[in-house]
TrEMBL record, chain A:
Its main location: membrane. InterPro entries: ABC_transporter_permease, MetI-like, MetI-like_sf. Residues 84-297 form the ABC transmembrane type-1 domain. Keywords: Cell membrane, Membrane, Transmembrane, Transmembrane helix, Transport. This is Sugar ABC transporter permease. It is found in: Cell membrane. One of its GO terms (biological process) is transmembrane transport. Belongs to the binding-protein-dependent transport system permease family. Pfam families: BPD_transp_1. It comes from Actinacidiphila cocklensis. It is a multi-pass membrane protein.
UniProtKB/TrEMBL annotation, chain B:
This is Extracellular solute-binding protein. It is found in: Cell envelope. Belongs to the bacterial solute-binding protein 1 family. Residues 1-22 form the signal peptide. Keywords: Signal, Transport. Its main location: other. Residues 400-421 are annotated as: Disordered.
Length: 306, 421
């Protein structure tokens, strides 16, 4: 406070610089607690993974540097390739289906209907429900012999309905179905927010020009939602590739290895078998896959914006 | 003043958070406020696993200067959680070894304190069944206190007059079919074969001499034929239903849905305590596990449970004292009294076991408790956990009908040969 009153200092410049520095400091003080948590719990482990992936480490004795051996092993590991295939399958089903379901719900529930708030809440509900409860309930619904889903299918004339989580062919579809049901409410809310940003005048103009509902959806709604769609796609992609909890609770990767996904393999190799080096190498592979897919999506987005 | 507060507060908060995090792992002293030595013991499901309380109470009564504190962990997560704790330099004094495979892993990594000298001091080593399984290249890092093995539990009302004392597996198969009655929701199954791979694979290994570490698994074929035949006849809840519904063997038996269930002896204590709480109306008995050959010998499999001392234990001496006491005659008496089979064997311990209120004491039950041979459920090796994963996956595929027995066995052979190193 004394320097501010000193006449010799060029007051405006100094107070400007000081204000800026103070702003920076205040900003940092706000960010700092979060950043410390992030650094200690995420950043350091992530950087650690990059190093550990090149070692042989059981989490207890000192790590041994083995260069690229973990990656060579990965190349010939059938579990790894099964997990890559399953993860890609899961993503290929989960991303488009959730996108379409969420968009469809958002468009439907964007109308001024009575009780629309209740419906929106109802569709959002699965997302806030405990995942374990969701998995257990769906396991029951999809139970091959006594589950209501198969009872209905039999009623409709399908004499040998799928075995769902107990069949190697149907375990991934069962997981996709459950996760679409669980996630669509959340992405629906994002789409609803996106829909609010499209000016009503555009719809009016389109209607004046004689555009029907489908034309309005194609040429007004979809382009207007492009930023939201892009964001939703990226988030969905990342969450699909790192899916773990649902698979672990519903099928544990089974039957056999039919629904083994990459995050599960990472968990098994590291925690169950104590091969933290190899487990980190697989994490790196997952990171590279997710990064590559996301970069491709960014590229597409940039091109379509031009 | 207010400005200063605004500036200092976030920093102080951050410092507190950091400080708290730093102290979190290192805090705590080794004694209570009244000067008793604290021994912390890692265990699972403290509320529903009465043996731990029985052992802790018994030990504290004898050594009032020591305070034993349970560190309760969810049973399913126990091995993973202990792995993580030890990797983080945890100083919990006593670690319960849930199975031998994990024990071998912790032991060979040097995470446990050697107890070899204490074993050498034992007066009568042969009384400790299962002790030899803890021999890791001449060193012992844990002492067993419980030795479970598999028997056949049966519902007296449902089984009726049928003789279950000397069953072969083919006899078991036809009896299970015979005892199956009703249909739909009122169906009573002749048996319940739980989803664990041991129900088929460990039985076959113990009774045919096949090696579970492979890589040749042809000896499993007959046992799979029995299990699949029982399932095909509808004499057990189908594997796929049991696994997708996460059915517990306890509910199948105590609700009278299954007449016979092959299971480990630990179940007796659970059934007794349920009955004591009025939850389970079933009148049950125990018989020897059915056999592959009818030569009169009763070969079964099982697995001991042990206590080990953490190498980084805060109070290693007191921890050792607990481990020795729990595995010795006094600990054995404490757990036999609640219906569990202790590792330490003596006639007085067996009398205590059969003296438990509600324990079946007929000749067949006594015969079941004296098998001719108990083979270790899974051999100890650094390959055990990898092989276990493969065998579990292929077991699922065979039992859910996704693969034939021959294809499943061939896949086990191939995968164990190529994937396990």
């Amino acid at each position: 406070m004394t320097t501010a009153s000193s006449p010799s200092a060029p007051a405006p410049v100094s107070s400007d610089r000081r204000r800026r520095r103070r702003n920076v400091l205040v900003g940092w003080s706000f960010v700092l607690p979060n950043f410390l948590g992030f650094a200690a719990l995420t950043l350091v482990p992530v950087v650690g993974t990059f190093v550990i992936a090149f070692t042989d480490w059981d989490s207890y004795s000192s790590p041994k540097w083995i260069g690229l051996a973990n990656f060579r092993r990965m190349q010939h590991d059938e579990n790894f390739w099964t997990a890559v295939r399953n993860t890609c399958w899961y993503a290929a089903g989960h991303i488009p289906l959730t996108l379409v379901a969420a968009l469809g719900l958002a468009v439907l529930l964007n109308q001024k209907l009575r009780g629309v708030g209740l419906l929106r809440t109802a569709f959002f509900f699965p997302y806030v429900t405990s995942l374990v409860a969701v998995a257990v309930v769906w396991n029951m619904l999809l139970s091959p012999d006594i589950g209501p889903v198969n009872q209905l299918l039999r009623h409709l004339g399908w004499s040998h309905p799928p075995g769902w989580t107990t069949s190697t062919d149907w375990s991934l579809p069962a997981l996709i179905l459950t996760s679409v049901w669980r996630d669509m409410g959340y992405y629906m809310v994002l789409f609803l927010a996106g829909l609010q940003t499209i000016p009503a005048e555009l719809y009016e103009a389109a209607r004046v020009d004689g555009a029907g509902p489908w034309m309005r959806f194609r040429h007004v709604t979809l382009p207007g939602l492009r930023p939201t769609t892009f964001f939703v796609t990226v988030m969905l992609t990342i969450s699909s590739f790192k899916v773990f909890d649902l698979v672990q609770v519903m099928t544990e990767g089974g039957p056999g290895r039919s629904s083994l996904v990459l995050s599960q393999l990472i968990f098994r190799e590291g925690i169950t078998h104590g091969r933290f080096g190899y487990s980190s190498a697989v994490s790196l592979a997952l990171f590279v896959i997710a990064l590559a897919v996301t970069l491709v999506q960014f590229q597409f987005q940039r091109r379509s914006e031009r | 003043m207010r400005k200063t507060t605004a500036r200092v507060l976030p920093v102080a908060l951050a410092a507190t958070l950091f400080g708290a995090a730093a102290c979190g792992s290192g805090g705590g002293s080794g004694t209570t406020s009244d000067g008793r030595t604290v021994v912390k013991i890692a265990l699972w499901n403290y509320q529903t696993t009465p043996e731990f309380k029985a052992l802790i109470d018994g030990f504290e009564a004898k050594y009032p200067k020591i305070d034993v504190q349970p560190v309760d962990i969810l049973a399913d997560d126990y091995p993973d959680k202990v792995t993580t704790m030890l990797a983080g330099g945890d100083r919990t004094d006593v670690l319960t070894m849930k199975n031998i495979t994990d024990y071998a892993r912790f032991g060979t990594r040097g995470q446990l304190l050697p107890l070899t000298d204490d074993v050498a001091k034992m007066a009568d080593k042969s009384a400790y069944s299962g002790l030899a399984d803890y021999n890791l290249k001449g060193q012992y890092y844990a002492l067993p206190y419980r030795q479970d093995f598999w028997v056949l539990f049966y519902n007296r009302k449902l089984v009726g007059d049928a003789d279950v004392s000397h069953l072969t597996w083919s006899g078991f198969d036809s009896l299970a079919k015979q005892l199956t009655t009703g249909s739909g929701s009122s169906k009573t199954y002749g048996t319940y074969l739980h989803t664990w791979r041991s129900v088929v694979q460990a039985v076959a290994s113990a009774q045919t001499g096949g090696n579970l570490l492979g890589p040749d698994y042809g000896w499993m074929k007959d046992q799979y034929s029995v299990a699949l035949d029982v399932q095909k006849a509808g004499a057990t809840l189908p594997f796929s239903t049991a696994s997708s519904q996460k059915i517990t063997y306890d509910s199948q038996f105590t609700t009278g849905k299954a007449a016979m269930v092959p299971m480990g002896t630990w179940w007796a204590a659970a059934l007794l305590s349920e009955k004591a709480q009025g939850k389970n109306p079933v009148d049950w008995g125990m018989a020897p596990l059915p056999q592959v050959s009818a030569d009169g010998k009763a070969t079964t499999f099982g697995s001991p449970t042990a206590f080990a001392v953490n190498k980084k234990a805060r109070n290693a001496d007191a921890a050792k004292q607990f481990v020795e006491w729990a595995s010795g005659p006094e600990g054995a008496a404490a757990i036999a009294k609640i219906g569990l089979v202790p590792s330490y064997h003596s006639s007085s311990v067996m009398n205590a076991f059969f003296g438990v209120q509600g324990m079946p004491t007929d000749a067949v039950a006594k015969q079941a408790m004296q098998p001719s041979k108990v083979q270790l459920e899974m051999p100890v090796s650094d390959k055990s956990s990898d092989v276990d994963e493969i065998l579990t996956q292929e077991h699922e595929l065979v039992m859910s009908g996704e693969k034939s027995v021959d294809d499943g066995i061939k896949e086990m052979d191939d995968r164990v040969k190529t994937e396990v190193r």
